[in-house]
Amino acid sequence: MTQPIAESHWFRNPTTAQNITQKIREIATKLEQVKICHVCGTHEWTITHFGLRSLLPSNIEVIAGPGCPVCIVPAAEIDEAIQLAIEGKVITCFGDILRVPGSTSSLMETKASGADVRIVYAVSDAIEMAKKEPTKEFIFSAVGFETTAPITALEALGDLPKNFSFLVSHRLIPPAMELLLGIEGLQIDGFIAPGHVSTIIGLKPYELFTKIYRMPTVVAGFEPNDVLMAIYMILRQHSVSDAQLENEYIRVVKPEGNKKAREVIQRAFTITAGNWRGIGRLDNSALQLKDKLAQYDARKKYSLKLVQCQDIHTGCQCHQVIIGKINPSQCGLFLKACTPARPVGACMVSSEGTCRVWAKNVS
Ligand code: SF4
Question: What is the best residue among 331, 336, 339 to mutate for testing ligand 1's pocket, by most ligand atoms within 8 Å of CB?
């Protein structure tokens, strides 16, 4: 990307959008069907909100993979938080996890029954509450991908009060991307990699997709033109039968990522296998606090026993939406029994969930 284009804020320029779309259309005439997958709730919002799919030729498809960190928290881990709340502990969490269904209930319903469940805007708010109320036990539900894990790590390594601990549900994106490549019938031809996760992990973790799977992979930002450009870059690779790792989001993402953030993650967490709602267990896809921080790990502190349970409720197709096999409108409950006001599945809860994005933006 040249400097003059960056200076003109090309990524917010409607004329640029027309130019990129024209280039996509031209190059698409030389290609067969191409299916591009992104793994980011914000990318899905940009694509859906700005109607980018409607600009693409019929042989170019963009699907949404598991990009919502709230949607993929398994019901069993919601149940753990509910159990702690029922036992009288204070559960603190971000607002979007509140309505995510556990096996039989949600934190919202548990709160309505009288449990002490509090929404916070930052983990530091939860820590301050714990300091001010030392006779109560506080737990923070730590959810998110590589983007939010450094904050949890930093706080866990800091000076925490004894009555505070984390219920960690952090997950890592590259293992989920690799899983998608093995799903029968999905047949992905290119990845748009998430810009914000990439600011932390850099480019290296995506190298296996090009080197082993020969999968064009482009890290992209979140403006409409960023996404259009990433699509064009993938198609350009296909047009010459190439598979490269490219960075469209150079104004933010450095090839090496954020070394300090990665260091702090490594000091606080061990990488382990983790369950993903609708997907199952993935090796090397979850973060667990290291033994030296066991006193701040709610699972160890309160001897929680993870009880596996059904993740998906009857009729809900979240397991298919999360892996991009269907789009939300192909679920029979979409905008009927399942709405943003009364979500049935996790994908309708968070603003990053594909079903909620579609419900808010597709008429
Ligand atoms: Fe599940 Fe609702 Fe999405 Fe259907 S529309 S897949 S029920 S979240």
Answer: 331
